[in-house]
Amino acid sequence: MPGEKLSYPGRNYLFAPGPTHIPNQVLTAMNVPQEDHRAPDFPQLVKPLLEDLKKIFRTKKGQCFIFPATGTAGWEIALANTLSPGDKILTSRFGQFSHLWFDLVTRIGLDVEVIEVPWGEGVPVMEIKKRLRADKERKIKAVVACHNETATGVTSDIAALGKAMKKDLKHPALLMVDGVSSVASIDFRMDEWGVDVAVSSSQKGFMLPAGMALLAFSPKALAKHKSSKCAKCFLDIKDHLSTNEGGYFPYTPSVPMLRGLRASLDLLLSEGLDNVHARHFRLAEGVRKAVKVWGLKTCAASPKWNSDTVTAIMAPPSVNAAEVIHIAYHRYNISLGAGLTQVAGKVFRIGHLGDNNDVRMMAALGGVEMAMRDAGIRIKPGSGTGAACEYYRKTAKAIPAFKAPAAPKTKAKRRANK
Fold this sequence. Notes:
Distance between the termini: 72 Å
CATH superfamily of the largest domain: Type I PLP-dependent aspartate aminotransferase-like (Major domain)
CATH architecture of the largest domain: 3-Layer(aba) Sandwich
Strand content: 15-25%
Number of helices: 15
Largest sheet: 7 strands, mixed
Shape: globular
Structural class: alpha/beta
CATH class of the largest domain: Alpha Beta
Order of helices and strands: EHHEHEHEHEEEHEHEEHHHHEEHEEHHH
Strand order of the largest sheet: 2-10-9-8-5-3-4
């Protein structure tokens, strides 16, 4: 049939910045018979999940929530449960997802002031600090920030933003952070950075299917819930506060997703968050070295903005980046991220987050090299993969010393031994 995807042997290589590959342990954990979510022993699953999520967000003071929803719903949960119609919000826009959160703010009746930033840069900490310093009447009730902008491959300095707000200015505004593509992948420290509401979701660093919004609220944000007047029902944390305490949910959860989350948290915590972050840096750095050798540029305006979960690569002006994506998918069974709105047709994106390792990234880079050459981008075959190969080799973990196995004894030697 025209337009029908061809059938390929082997697995599809999923290198969009979400959804990501799901580990076998997680898939197995989710493949269970249906369970009673009101069963007497159900809290034995739920309570440890909520506690272990705090370790991923790196908060001891905060409270975590699990909603059967998406990251977009997470944004609304953060805003609607802490603010009231007409409250003033300060945010910045420098990519598709920072734009979408801005759009959601306006659509639920909040007054938003937006700082426009060139795509390829991140949260403008000094400009936000300037605006907050001028806010003598404390009308700004929240600052909304996107930690990792996947549209452009940019990571912002939330630690510096939190310091500017909480320590330098002591401004009372809430700090709300979109950590959808950063939490469980790159360094995120809720308590240390002064984050009041952190939003994430299941399909990226948590290595699950889409369909689960994961949030953490600080004590300050929880207190604001009592006075918030934004309309909410399904997304109200009030019902979760009462039912989660006993280990249940106010409505039917996706139990297979909860089982998968248990397996995902076990994998992340057994590897160790610092090791998870270091692994993501290594994988990203190998990709960046390949891009440099190819003679191409990333969308990130300077190395300080580089994301360790996704690299957005600028195609030459003569090539539509969408063609690289089209060829990679239909000819080589590789899914890459597309350029969005302002960078549509200008960039293609390689996701390197979640359940990935050196060899899987080498496969991605090899496929991308073939697709780029097919699309007319003049690169030397093997140049990028070679650069990544050498980097991964030199930075690979140490292995035990090799000991050659003893040679098998011949018949003559066996007789001599007798």
